[in-house]
Amino acid sequence: MAKYPDEGRRKALCQWLTANGINPGDVPIDADLTITTEPDGTRLIRYEAFVLVDGHKTLDERGQGAAIEKRTAPLVAAPPAWWQPYEKPTREQLASDLKKAQAALRHVQDSLVAEAHRRQTRYDTGPEMTPETRLNVAGELIGLRVALGIALGYPAQGTDGINAAMAHYDEWLGRRGTATPTH
Predict the structure, then answer these.
(1) Where are the domains of the chain?
(2) I need a labelling partner for 135 at 20 to 30 A (CA). Which of 10, 64, 98, 160 fits?
(3) Grouped pLDDT means (10 residues each) for the chain, 183 residues
(4) Within 10 A of 37 (CB to CB), how many other CB atoms are there?
(5) What is each CA distance from 51 to 16, 41, 57, 67, in whole angstroms?
């Protein structure tokens, strides 16, 4: 049962569960709660509930939280019109999402380091650079290194992020076949 922002919706959901023979107090706030149709046409509410022994919640197998079990109940009363089924993502879905997020982060990191390289090259070889332009590009490089450090998981404050960004830059140059860092 997902969190609902207002008391009216929470009460309506509890009334709906009760009308279907489900004790709302047995259903965790983040429980899976869906409606399915069986091959014979029977409609069921599939939900998660606390495992109770003598009316008390029991611990899960790790002893770290309440034990939860999957249950079903016949759908007798229709849910509120605003209700949406809720099902927590599976480990496989979470792993897939994590891989996508990591790939996106690598893209951001590579984009930042490529832009830093472009500006570092301009700083090192730009004959048209006035002292003022050189100062501006140096500031841009610092900003890109801080941003890359943040993308690598370091805080903006301090030098750890900048040092990690520089090491990442050196590694990036190595992957490109450029042997000598230009910073």
Answers:
(1) 7-74, 91-176
(2) 160
(3) 70 95 93 95 96 92 93 96 91 95 94 92 82 90 93 90 91 75 50
(4) 10
(5) 21, 29, 6, 5
